[in-house]
Design a protein that fits this description.
With 307 residues, the protein is α/β, with parallel strands linked by helices. It is built from twelve helices and eleven strands. Helix 1 crosses helix 2 and helix 8 packs parallel to helix 12. The protein is elongated.
């Protein structure tokens, strides 16, 4: 289907989803841009695709892969739009559009998924769904069955409170996947996970790492629920009593990371089982939030790899 005007309703919808978190929240949908993100997105989440007329030619050898995916999407009912060269730049959130963007449904996860007991769900569906099995594998992630039939690892969670920088959040997703987390929990004060800058910074981890946003004001209640499930909470804090590498993270645990400028709120700190610190040299008082999260998560990954 061809679109020739920026005033087209579908183009306006995509532009609104890129620009406004309220629109993304209400529709439970967002926009991804670029070939890599498009190819990594679970096929069953893609609603509509917008492609520049010259996009396939510009993508060289990847053009063939793109054509095959577009054909598969059309067969499953996704709507494909071809738009004139140049119109993409009027919609895109990036300075140099790659000629392809798509409207996708937001992945739906549950509290149990954070602990490793379920699979991604489509909005409104009760059945656990996997992305295209040929493209996405979650084997080896904490909370999933191991290939050797052994017991699944204990939960390893990243818990974020009031993180505000989209790039930081995206980097945390990417780092969390690399460290093998079972899930990410965020409070409602954390920046929108479907912010375009966040989505790009995740490097597609947004589709592979279970995440949950506590939309109510009772973030503390969710933390208490995690503790009841046997998850020990460690707060990265300047008042930590011992260095982070003095603790054991083999059993179920979660790392609490706070706002870039103000850190964790006193209410959340009070729920932590231990306050940990990252020893630093020089006159630096604190690390970037994403960096701190990476240090803690990879220490847990190191310990678990050695068991």
């Amino acid at each position: 289907m061809e679109i020739s005007s920026a005033s087209n309703a579908q183009i306006r919808r995509a532009a609104a989803l890129l620009a406004r978190s309220k629109a993304r929240r209400e529709e439970q949908a967002f926009v991804i841009e670029g070939l890599r993100l498009f190819m990594d997105t679970p096929q069953n989440l893609i609603e509509a695709v917008f492609v520049d007329r010259s996009a396939a030619a510009q993508m060289g050898r990847d053009g063939g892969r793109l054509a095959k995916r577009l054909e598969a999407l059309a067969a499953q009912g996704a709507v494909l739009y071809q738009i004139p060269d140049g119109l993409m730049a009027k919609v895109s959130d990036t300075a140099a559009p790659q000629g392809i963007l798509a409207v996708v449904r937001r992945p739906q996860w549950t509290f149990g998924d954070l602990l490793g007991s379920g699979g991604m769900r489509m909005p409104g569906s009760q059945a656990g769904l996997r992305a295209d099995a040929a493209e996405v594998s979650v084997s080896g992630r904490p909370g999933t069955e191991r290939n050797d039939g052994g017991a699944a690892p204990s939960p390893l969670l990243l818990i974020l409170e009031n993180v505000q920088d989209p790039g930081n959040l995206g980097t945390m997703f990417r780092t969390a996947e690399a460290a093998g987390v079972s899930g990410i929990l965020m409070n409602r004060g954390t920046v929108d996970v479907t912010n375009p800058k966040t989505v790009r910074a995740t490097m597609s981890a947004i589709f592979r790492v279970p995440f949950l946003v506590e939309e109510s004001a009772d973030f503390a209640g969710t933390l208490v629920r995690l503790k009841a499930e046997g998850v020990r909470l460690y707060a990265a804090h300047l008042d930590g009593t011992a260095a982070y590498d003095r603790f054991s993270y083999i059993e179920g645990c979660g790392f609490l990371i706070g706002n870039e400028g103000n850190g964790l709120t006193p209410e959340t700190v009070a729920l932590a089982d231990d306050l940990v610190k990252i020893p630093m040299c020089g006159q630096i008082e604190s690390l970037n939030a994403a960096m701190a999260a990476g240090i803690l998560l990879f220490e847990a990954a190191r310990q678990r790899r050695l068991t």
